[in-house]
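Side project, low priority. Logging it here so it doesn't get lost.
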Amino acid sequence: MTSILGTGIQEGLLLKPVTYRWAMDLYDQAVANTWFPNEIQLGEDLADFARMTDDERHALTYLMSYFNPNELLVNKALAFGVYPYVNAAECHLYLAKQMWEEANHCMAFEYVLETFPIDREQAYGSHVNVPSMAAKEEFEVRYIRRMTEDTLDISTVEGKQDFVRNLVAYNVILEGIWFYSGFMVALSFRQRNLLRNFGSLIDWIVRDESLHLKFGINLILTVLEENPEIATEEFSAEIRQMILGAVTLEEEYNRDLLPTGILGLNGSVLNDYVRYLTDRRLEELGFEPEFHVQNPAKWMAAANDTFELVNFFEATNTSYEVNAQA
């Protein structure tokens, strides 16, 4: 029986015939989506930045403080916690492209830090010095530490469960909930006709992240389908609680991100959006929703549903693409 999990060096060296079509489709779309930060004229947003309030500039700086190091943390999770344990060539191709995209996102946020008059030292230090931000990072590091300090034995139930835990921590929680919460704040400025070019940069990042989320969820569901013995009641309850615990961390973080709110947005609204997102991710994994809240940011529908995740490849992508067909 074909299995998506495996550690053999000489396995997964032949691409055709493709076993996991979804992975190949995601790779093709990711290549078509290739972009570079300096294609955006970010300097045109400097006048907007100058007239923003202190609270608005704090929110933008706070987002850069979090996004910049965590894009690189995702790459560590992929390199140490996913790539070595997957043996399908089409998955390796996609993961290689995803790792490049995470590096590109890091450089995009560096571009923001270089363009706007943001205190880089303060921004870099916040992910260590701000307790709510550091708590989120420690949550993620706890799972990847299992991958970096001890090789998993994925022939065992326990090893396969650890593999899935890491996927949930990074693909579902970090990329699928926490990043999207930040995207909502970043794109809220454009809703008020501020930082329009910055908004375009975030659009391109969101488009990449929608594929990362799609890949991660498909990988989790494939592992569970091929290894049904790992989906015990206890493990399912643990995964659900792991996701819900991450919501609590995000709520604390968002209160520091928006301590007094900005025009049209405050911590309460943002946390409702987090709960809405969490219900969508729970459902995508086969769980019942927890919060049953309405989307408080309808204008984010195209982003938070990852461009209609289920029907992504049926939709016409009107955004920038390389090699797009006329």
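Brief comment: The chain is about 65% helix and 0% strand.
Revisit when time allows.
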